[in-house]
Write a structure and sequence with these properties.
Elements: E1 32-36, H1 42-48, E2 60-67, E3 72-75, E4 81-88, E5 91-93, E6 96-98, E7 103-106, E8 112-116, E9 120-127, E10 135-137, E11 140-142, H2 145-156
Parallel strand pairs: 1-2
Antiparallel strand pairs: 2-9, 3-8, 4-7, 4-9, 5-6, 5-8, 10-11
Length: 176
């Protein structure tokens, strides 16, 4: 229910979090794959079909896909929720071109192939739909509003503890 916006001394390329099913309270983890393509995206597509040794609480995936110009990447329609965030380059999907900075969300069941117009890098992510509504307030996310109120009080009372190596304390906002 909490994250730190502090940047560790290590160089981290990207970070992500996932929502857990309502009946599970452990943090979820993501499968992270990195691949590069030259003429074909098959190595990257295969990486999405591998199982991570890390246990997750629902079916999900995340991959860092780097496509060479003129290569293509078919996305598995088995996941109901799929998206691609274009970091670099230009891609084409169903005859439409997209530039960096776009989050492309795909409809369930659609057969999608991402074509690289130029060398491109995308973050692919998706998985099972969440099992109900989630409420968000500041850094807190929960399926229950009362749990967010509990978290606010815990934050005010210092029960979250400190982030190792980060002495800064960010007070709970009065309003958002």
């Amino acid at each position: 229910m909490r994250h730190s916006d502090g940047t560790p001394r290590l160089k981290i390329r990207t970070a992500a979090w996932s929502l857990n099913p309502v009946n599970r309270s452990r943090p979820g983890r993501l499968l992270w794959s990195s691949c590069a393509t030259t003429q074909s995206a098959a190595p990257c597509f295969s990486a999405l079909r591998q199982n991570s040794p890390v246990q997750t609480l629902s079916a999900l995936f995340q991959a860092d896909a780097m496509l060479a110009a003129a290569s293509s990447l078919p996305l598995d329609p088995a996941y109901d929720e799929r998206a691609a965030y274009l970091l670099e380059g230009e891609v084409e999907i169903a005859g439409e071109r997209f530039a960096p900075g776009r989050l492309l969300v795909f409809r369930p069941g659609d057969h999608v192939t991402v074509g690289a117009v130029t060398p491109a890098r995308l973050i692919l992510l998706g998985g099972d739909p969440i099992d109900g509504p989630r409420h968000i307030w500041w850094n807190f996310v929960s399926s229950r509003r009362e749990r967010i109120e509990e978290a606010k009080q815990a934050w005010k009372n210092g029960r979250f503890g400190a982030v190792p190596g980060d002495a800064e304390f960010i007070p709970l906002p009065e309003r958002i």
